[in-house]
DNA sequence: TATTGTTATACTCTATAACTATA
DNA sequence: TATAGTTATAGAGTATAACAATA
């Protein structure tokens, strides 16, 4: 089932290479929009409902300070706004703007284009198998449904009793 | 064929997340050996034949200065040695040691273990489909056969008239 | 005292550019 | 002048820790 004897033929290693390549490609496409790949998870999450920053961080599986940066950048592009919560003045609720929704849509189109290029050599059966297989792997490994992956430890499934 | 409407469901994005996760897992396993994932490509390449540093850089698709660092680290672990070329004293031929071969073997075993964990939820048909599909994608995109992926542009085959 | 968001800082990975020693 | 390797530096990505305002 795993016929390779070498690291470079392993799935672990191959995924790393492909991930780097795919992210790079997508980032290039996204650049003209003023976005980077990780921003997309935020936009798509907020498209569903406004969210506080910590909840956001937890959901996409990154640390809060990273969220601050991403929100700064997205706010600079007019894709969202932070609204102080009048009930709890520590909180800021993050809301997507119409511009943000438009960006998310454009980004989704670009991602689809990249996908087509990546899958160029596969027939639709193979492509589907890869897609579904990887989705299953991601689910089994507990990757956040949406959002960028936690780099290392971080058990996002069990954030503990906090909040 | 690409039924998703969102970035976060795209293959491009998914590969990025999975790549990060897989690389992190593998790095954790490798750490006790004093290795990191990228070192493995070097070791496996050298296992075939000694090589000069520039050739090495080109083959695995990274910039020469990165090779210097990696070789320093691998030499510190006793995995290889740099031998000055007596014909052309600018060159250093890099040779793997027995220790290096042993490390490469251990690393391959660890990679295999990680693969098994990653593919835990897939039956062997699906696992094979994913493996073969991804290998095909990698080939189609021109990833270096062995070694870590070039981050972005970098046409290592044609460095151009610059310098 | 705990929590929300922020800033400051550090570490990894990778790249470019300037430098050395040879050729 | 060109090439092999090296060093110095920079940028993107992420994380931890200390801090301010508020609860």
Automatic annotation (TrEMBL), chains A, B:
Keyword terms: DNA-binding
Task: Tell me which residues make up the HTH marR-type domain.
Answer: 8-139
Please name the InterPro entries in this protein's record: HTH_MarR-typ (IPR000835), MarR/SlyA-like (IPR039422), WH-like_DNA-bd_sf (IPR036388), WH_DNA-bd_sf (IPR036390)
- For this UniProt entry, which segments traverse the membrane? none
Asked if the Swiss-Prot or TrEMBL record annotates the protein with the keyword NADP, the reply is no
Spell out the Gene3D superfamilies in the cross-references.
Answer: Winged helix-like DNA-binding domain superfamily/Winged helix DNA-binding domain
Question: Sorted alphabetically, which SMART domains does this protein's record hold?
Answer: HTH_MARR
A Pfam family it matches: MarR_2
Q: Which GO terms describe its biological process?
A: response to stress
Q: Which GO terms describe its molecular function?
A: DNA binding; DNA-binding transcription factor activity
The name this protein carries in UniProt is DNA-binding MarR family transcriptional regulator
Origin species, per record, is: Streptosporangium album
């Amino acid at each position: 089932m795993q016929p390779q004897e070498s690291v470079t033929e392993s799935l672990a290693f191959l995924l790393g290479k492909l991930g780097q390549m795919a992210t790079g490609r997508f980032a290039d496409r996204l650049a003209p929009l003023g976005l980077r790949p990780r921003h997309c998870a935020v936009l798509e999450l907020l498209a569903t409902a406004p969210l506080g920053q910590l909840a956001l961080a937890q959901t996409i599986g990154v640390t809060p300070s990273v969220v601050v940066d991403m929100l700064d950048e997205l706010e600079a592009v007019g894709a969202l706004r932070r609204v102080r919560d009048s009930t709890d003045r520590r909180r800021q609720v993050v809301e997507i703007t119409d511009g943000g929704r438009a960006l998310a849509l454009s980004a989704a189109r670009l991602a689809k284009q990249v996908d087509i290029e990546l899958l160029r050599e596969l027939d639709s059966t193979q492509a589907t198998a890869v897609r579904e297989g990887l989705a299953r792997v991601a689910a089994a490994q507990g990757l956040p449904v949406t959002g960028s992956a936690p780099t290392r430890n971080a058990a996002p499934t069990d954030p503990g009793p906090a909040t």
